[in-house]
Amino acid sequence: MRVLMIIALSILLLPNAVSAQSSRYSTWADPTASSAPNPALDKLVAELNKLIDKAEKANAADPTFLQDLRNLTNAQRAPSQKLLVSDAFADGDYTNNPVWQVVSGEYFIESGWGLRNRLITANPQTSSNTSGNSGEDFAKAILGQLLKQATKTPSQPAASSENLITLSTPISNAFDLEVEMSSWLADSHFELGVFQGEQALIGYRLLYVSGKGIQLHRVGNAGSSVIATSSQAITIEDKDFHTIIWSRSGDGSMRVSLDGTNVITTSDRGFSDPFDGVRISDKGGDFIIKQVKVSGS
Q1: Which of 7, 12, 216, 292 is 20 to 30 A from residue 134's alpha carbon, by CA?
Q2: Domain spanning 82-105+161-296 has what CATH number?
Q3: Three-class SS of residue 47?
Q4: Are 275 and 261 in contact (CB under 8 A)?
Q5: Reduced to 3 states, what is the DSSP secondary structure of residue 6?
Q6: 108: part of which helix (H) or strand (E)?
Q7: Is the pTM of this model over 0.70?
Q8: pLDDT band at 76, cuts 50/70/90?
C-alpha cells in the first residue's frame, strides 16, 4: 500500500500537474513540444521506475496497471527517438546498406528468411536453398570429404569457433534494439550486443542458451560480469520467429523482453558513452535473423 501511495504521489508531481504557485492551475503546455533537459524530472522518473520495479516483484498491484505507469514515465523521460538502423535483409545482400562485416565464421542470406549462420552447411538438405555461392561452396566441402574418405585420411576434430558478424554504426547510450530471429537446433548459444571500439569487444551482451535462459553481461577490459539473468528457463528452438526487444534508458536502466514478456529488468552505469555498433554471434546452433532495428537519439 505504501508503494502505491508513493507511486500515485510521484505521478502527481509530473509536469503539468496542479501548481502550488499563486494561481490554482499552471499554464498548459503542449506535451509534443520539444523542451530543454530537465535533470530534476529525470531523477524523479528514475525513482518512480524503481518503485514500479519493487511493486512488480512484490506483486503489489495489477501488472497491467504497473505497465501503464511505466509507459507513462518512459514517455515523460525519453526524448523522441529516431530509427538508426533497420535491416530486414530483403535485398539479399548483408554487405551493403547497411554494411555488415563477418569477423569470424560464415554468414549468408537464406532467401525469404534472413541472415543465417554457416554451421548448417554440414547438412546438404538444409543448405539447398541458400543464396549466392552457397551451392558451389557446399559442393567443394562435400568433395573434400569424399577425397578424405577415398584416401582414408583421418578427419581432424573441429576446433571450437565463433560465428561473429558486426555492424559499425553510431548508437546513442540510450537505445532500443529489436531483433526478430528463429532457432533451429538444440544446444544453441546466441549472443546479441552493442560494442565500443574497433575490435567490437567492449560493451553489453545479451546471451541466450537454449533450455537455460537469457543473461545480460557487461564486457570491459578487465573481463565479463553478469548483470542480470532471466528467472525462468527459456527455449525457442521451435523454428518460429521470436522477437527480442532490449531497451536502455539514459539513467542506465535496462529491460529485455521476449515476445512481449519481460524477462530482465535491471540497471547498470558501466558505460556512459555512445556505442559504435551492433554485434551478433553464436557458438553453436542454427539461427536465422529476420530483422534488426535500432532506435536512439
Answers
A1: 292
A2: 2.60.120.560
A3: helix
A4: no
A5: helix
A6: strand 107-110
A7: no
A8: low
